[in-house]
Amino acid sequence: MPICSGTSRPTRGTTATPFQPTPARLIRAQFSKTWQYSTNATFARNSAIGGSAQGGGIRNDGQATFRNTIIANSPSGGDCVSTVALSGTNSHNLIKDNMNACGLVNGANSNKIGLDPVLGTLTSPSGGGPPYFPLLSGSLAIDAGNNATCAAAPVNNQSQNGVPRPQDGDGDRVAVCDIGAYE
Ligand SMILES: [Ca+2]
Q: Which of 23, 48, 73, 121 has the most other CB atoms within 10 Å of its CB?
């Protein structure tokens, strides 16, 4: 069974990058034990092996909480599958797959379900570090996060692309954190 890859782990501010063994095969993150958080992370282009609704982006069989997290563009298995109810308050997430959203509902707790985050191509920072998926113009993840979540540990107002949070991304002169790893 697929398990969490080295780059698709549920830690703060990380971008879930495709894990590609040979031959190319993408793999999901699996939440299966004690309480695990995903905060300001982007999970994209990950897959589950073994059929539909297995949890291509994330599979939770334990205690998981998602905040300010993007899960999208899973080629197979669905974006987010949870065999149990999520734990705690799950808010300000954007999950593209409305059929597999770990039970989250569009509009509840500021979650955006069934909407496209409009991710750019996987980008490697010039100064090194993990690659990230940028948010392109028109993304509903821009300025849609929760500032208190961004300010608190473990995010500490940092972003995967090195830009301090929050920034005004929609030009309304109000600086609000973006959902996901990118700001
Ligand atoms: Ca912003």
A: 48
